[in-house]
Amino acid sequence: MRNFQDFDRRMMAEDAGAAGGASVATTQNYVNAYTGATEAFEPTSTMSPEVKIWYNTEALENARSNHMFAQFAKNIPLPENHGMTVEMRKANTFGDVPRLKEGVIPDGEKFGYSAVSATVYEYGAYTPLSRRLMRHAVDPVAQDAVEEMGAAGGNTQDKIARNIVLSGSNVMYCDKSNGTAVTTRSALDSTCLLTPTMVNRAVTWLKKHKAPKINGKYVAIIHPSVTYDLRQSSDWIDAHKYADPEEIYNGEIGELHGVRFIESDNAKVLRGKDLASDSRTLTVNGAITEAGKTITFDGGTVAEDALKDRYILVGDVKCLVTANTASTITVKDNVNGIADDTVIYPGEGGSQGIAVYGCIFLGKSAFGMIDVEGGNMEMIIKSPEEAGGPLNQFGTIGVYFETGGGVLYEERLLRVECGSYYSTVDEDEEE
Asked: What is the 8-class DSSP label of residue 247?
């Protein structure tokens, strides 16, 4: 911390009389440093390599603290100059060894590999900091920018890993509180909680599919709202009661039925955005008594094709929207028997458009992330002399990385979808 403070003091001390005692605004507006946007911005003088190293360390620590999903990935190395697509290979398993017949040579077993291909993509962002801002701001602007940029980079990496595991094909839906089984996402309601019984069922599924454990346990990554529901159970075990805190994974909160639970606010929330600019829902305007693909609606202001490629729930009928006007919705498949004034809900979540939570249960090496040589997350700091234009007016602080990945073993990955006490208030999770 002292290095940051010393650096900021040096910046404030440089040309201390330049302002001539005049009042200097410390608010910085965003501007694209390379396109000449209208706002002014302000950075620092040349940063020493030592300062850059300290900044990079701070950012990487922030990034790693956000790695809830990626910490369970199998690392797949990609050396330099080996292309941008990686074939991640896994050995096919053998069946049981058969009993031999005396004197008879058995047929040989075939051995081979299956492959999953993944492409790496590059990600990056930067912010300009003006020389004046760095000299006169009360707050340690460069340090704060580095911390926030590192956190943003780590958060993005974690969402990329999350989206990979969400692509797995195995899904289980939580039962309703009355014991009714649920077979589709759109039938989940706020009573369909992740209970100890459902956790046990998920564990049994992984065991039946011979999914190997991670350090002796399976792992589940859940949303804080799901944590709230699960902690109502007397079966819950606090993580700190069974492990040295130094051995606990990032975000680990407890254990149940041989599963170590990781809490992440990046866990997927599926709810769907509001259907109208001034209303979450719409209503059917006129009963539909003959099969057709057009639904007339009222109850909100909807721009043309704003609902295209989204799902809607017309009552409890899920439909894919192919087009819409300000008063009609066209769906992919025919609908019929829809009463007038039937409520139309967003269809990406559960019953009546409530939030649904994707809980990820993992065995060892269920998915892989590509470790790109030279492409790990990096803080890139440019001094005014390097980036500040003809007058050296600004520097930049940015983050850059390359990554990609894919599911390796479908049978080691299970998505358990559930509702929550908070299903009516939680918002859809951004990509």
From this structure: G
Q: In what order do the strands lie in the sheet with 121-130?
A: 121-130, 394-403, 378-382
Tens digits of residue pLDDT in 225-244 = 999 999 998 888 877 676 66
- Residue 369, phi then psi, degrees to nearest 5: -120, 140
Amino acid 112: pLDDT = 76
Element (H, E) at 405: strand 405-407
Q: What is the mean pLDDT of residues 273-291?
A: 95
Please give the Cα distance from 98 to 379 (Å, whole number). 57
Instruction: Check residue 299 and give left, alpha or beta (phi > 0: left; psi -120 to 50: alpha).
Output: left
CA distances for 46 relative to 57, 143, 302, 393, angstroms:
19, 15, 52, 12
CB-CB contact of 395 with 44 (8 Å): yes
Give the closest residue to 70 by CA, choosing from 166, 161, 168, 165.
161
pLDDT tops 80 at residue 150: yes
DSSP string, 132-162: HHHHH-SS-HHHHHHHHHHHHHHHHHHHHHH
Express each pLDDT in 92-131 by its tens digit.
Answer: 777 788 888 888 888 888 887 777 788 889 999 988 887 7
Q: Is 194:359 a contact under the CB 8 Å cutoff?
A: yes
Q: How far is CA 271 from CA 73, 90, 111, 132, in A?
A: 27, 35, 44, 45
Helix, strand, or coil (residue 239): helix
